[in-house]
Design goal:
This protein is an all-alpha fold. The N and C termini lie far apart (78 Å). It has a single domain, classed as MFS general substrate transporter like domains (Growth Hormone, Chain: A), CATH 1.20.1250.20. The longest helix is centred in the middle third of the chain and has 31 residues. Its main location: membrane. Pfam families: MFS_1. It is a multi-pass membrane protein.
């Protein structure tokens, strides 16, 4: 006799469509058993995206200073708007990561970055400094989502023991975007012939205003190209499967409140040291790159903006090479020792820039850029590694990103010193102090690891 009793079939969970599947295995501590190379490279390609925006700021500072007749201090507000956006949005971005996923936070960041770029269209027509600062701030909001996600996510996409090296590899992609941004600015924003200051010197009244507006129209051109790339990146991320990269061994891993996390981190002295050092480092990096073009023009009276921006291309190439060399050295010695060596050489180079007032100092700014190589990624991963309670990882990563506010403050101080002393060269003492802090931090880490 046939049994006509119907048995309920076990429902098959719906799977999201992904063109590019994840093949690595998620471990209980949030790391993977091996590096999923396609996902890792795609994630690493985000690093050039915020690098391009950051390097374009160095172009905008020079352009705005002349057109809006700004002091060095006032022109540095470009960086304040940019890094201020990072500071304000990092914690909200971490909350999105905790509630959803790293991938969704990245997609939100790409979308907001695109919106910020489109704001350059009305800004270039309204032609006021404050509107440009608002557009730059909007871009930074999107970038804060990207950096808060990507830096921590890169450290998790693979085995735990290669965390620092992996983040340094991702950071190696950064100079590619920085070079692309400066090249776009050099040829699409800066013109040929005499410097912008010389061209505007003989203009008055409506003639000067019209010329300034014409020059400001050029500022939106690089952002058209960036928007196209951002749309392509969004599509690729939607089609690619990514791991959750969240610990599974503790059922309440993601339940920590912000207040609890902040209380935990406030008592973590090593974490606080890392935050302070990252603040000083990113401020120094931003200041050196913000004023390299101005330094070249102050030491070489006949050079124009387009020619001076070539030194920034060399700087980013040096930055790239510095990272490659640092990655190689980290296979031979500890990351802290590599950071220490780079810090000593960087401090000596900045002292040279400050004391020697000829064009050789500009070439030393290129050398300093090379010596920035391992700094951000090494300090970031070592600082994040001090967070042993993994319930706080996402928020801790966001707070490290918030230390980028140094990029809003240190350039202002260096610009103020340049205005006070009347010398762009002397102002590099501010950056020198910052690199000395990195040296002290790395030496302290070496002692603890001995």
């Amino acid at each position: 006799m046939l049994d006509h009793t119907t048995t309920q079939a076990t429902p098959v969970p719906k799977k999201s469509f992904h063109l590019f599947k994840l093949k690595a295995k998620q471990l209980d501590d949030g790391y993977l058993d091996r590096i999923p190379w396609f996902q890792f490279i795609l994630l690493s390609l985000l690093f050039p995206m915020w690098a391009a925006a950051a390097s374009l700021n160095d172009i905008l500072i020079t352009q705005f200073k002349t057109i809006f007749t700004l002091s060095n201090f006032a022109s540095a507000f470009v960086q304040s708007a940019f890094y201020g956006g990072y500071f304000l949005i990092a914690i909200p971005a971490s909350l999105v990561i905790k509630k959803t996923s790293y991938k969704l936070a990245i997609l939100i960041g790409l979308l907001l970055y695109t919106v910020g770029c489109t704001l350059f269209f009305p800004a270039s027509h309204m032609a006021t400094y404050s509107i440009f600062l608002a557009a730059i701030f909007a871009i930074a909001v999107g970038l804060s989502f990207l950096e808060t996600s990507a830096n921590t996510y890169s450290s998790l996409l693979g085995p735990k023991e290669t965390t620092t090296l992996r983040l340094n590899i991702s950071q190696t992609f950064y100079p590619i975007g920085a070079i692309a941004g400066i090249v776009l600015g050099k040829y699409l924003i800066f013109g040929e012939g005499a410097s912008l200051e010389e061209q505007m010197k003989g203009l008055t009244g409506i003639e000067r205003v019209q010329f300034g507006e014409q020059m400001l129209q050029k500022t939106l051109l690089p952002y058209k190209f960036i928007i196209i790339v951002l749309i392509a990146m969004m599509i690729l991320f939607i089609l690619t499967e990514f791991p959750a990269s969240k610990p599974k061994d503790e059922p309440n891993t993601e339940s920590a409140k912000i207040s609890e996390t902040l209380a935990y981190l406030a008592k973590n002295k090593e974490f606080l040291k890392g935050i302070g050092t990252e603040f000083m480092y990113i401020g120094m990096q931003t200041a050196v790159w913000s004023f390299t073009i101005r330094l070249a023009m102050s030491l070489h009276g006949s050079i124009n903006e387009r020619s001076a921006s070539t030194f920034m291309i060399y700087s980013y190439i040096a930055f790239f090479l510095g990272k490659i060399i640092a990655n190689f050295l980290m296979n031979k010695m500890s990351p802290s020792k590599v950071l220490y060596i780079y810090g000593i050489l960087g401090s000596l180079s900045l002292a040279y820039i400050m004391l020697v007032h000829n064009m050789s100092a500009v070439y030393f700014t290129i050398l300093v850029s090379g010596l920035f190589g391992p700094c951000w990624a090494t300090i970031y991963s070592q600082t994040l590694d001090t967070v042993t309670d993994k319930r706080h990882t996402a928020t801790a990563g966001a707070i490290i990103v918030m230390s980028i506010i140094g990029g809003a403050i240190i350039p202002l101080i260096q610009g103020l010193v340049a205005d006070w002393t009347g010398s762009m060269s002397y102002s590099f003492v501010v950056s020198l102090i910052c690199f000395v802090v990195v040296v002290i931090y790395s030496k302290d880490r070496m002692k603890k690891q001995a």
